[in-house]
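Sorry to interrupt, but I need a hand with the structure work. Could you add the entry underneath, on a fresh line?
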Amino acid sequence: MKKIKVLQIIPSFGVGGAEKLVLDYLYFFDNETVEIKAISMFENQNTINDEFIREKGLDVVYLDKKPGLDLSMFIKINKIIKEFEPDVIHSHMNTMKYLIFSKGKVKLFHTIHNEPEKDAYGMDKLANKFSFKYLKCTPITLSEELAEKANEYYGINNAIVVNNGIDFKKFISLKHSKEDLRKKLGLPTDSFIIGHVGRFMDQKNHDFLINIFAEVVKVKENSLLLLVGDGELRCYIEEKVKKLGLIGKVKFLGLRKDIPEIIKTLDVFLFPSLHEGFPITLIEAQVAGVRCVISDLIDRRIVLNIDTVPVSLNTPAREWCNTVLNNEIKGTPIDKIDYFDINVIVKQLERKYREE
């Protein structure tokens, strides 16, 4: 089998679902059959992902993009393309506009990581639409529902689905009990622990999440909430926690490398997002066997076991609290959890790259 060259392009390796997925592509593709390189349009920001890239010696070129439309990126990206001579270019987020003059005979793919209208608008929507219609770029979405929305949003009919994937081994290899992991992380072993992993931004709906937790504490005083992540709304949420008298009940853990361990300590993973693509952290929680209570606005195919329960965002926080605390309330699994193994996903994607 001929080895192919693949170039991934992303704005940066900040901490988020799209960035984590590209990082997994770099790490998990079989280097016997795929030579893979990535461009980060912004400089190294020394995030957890950037540290991982350095530790593992992954092939990433960091550019020095300025905020907004940076015309120098056309020249710099084109130079890298000419030197690397990829068979495939795979873009992510708002990078396609810098590729519309660089295609040549290279196959183009672009992943839509969120609801299409949230993922790209204005100039980015125009660039994506042009590439899908005239550059034979293949649009990739993370679920069937998002593929239908992408086809409608861009006026196309060829969006394909490649699932997000996770490394199952990170969870399977954790042999410690929940109690031992709590001791290791300095958490009380007798608490009812709820957790959330996500960037502090409107989409993740931390404001409502805190309202739900405030109701849980009224019923179950030994409850604890772990919030993993960072972002522009963190200070606002910290202030809200103070106003509601929940200091000591809510722990802000920041950005972490030990996500599998943290998730395995939880009794419930709470995820009331306003909208999502196909969130990796929610797949991780289900692989870890944690009960999940989630927004019903998230694609139903994310329900992978009976302990994942969608709840309407129109439902009051008190009712969400009842669902969090009542293990008898079950969900209906839609898909098989095995479909989200990253090792399966990269093989599926390689086949797409090789198709004529």
Notes: The longest strand covers residues 4-10. The longest helix spans residues 206-219.
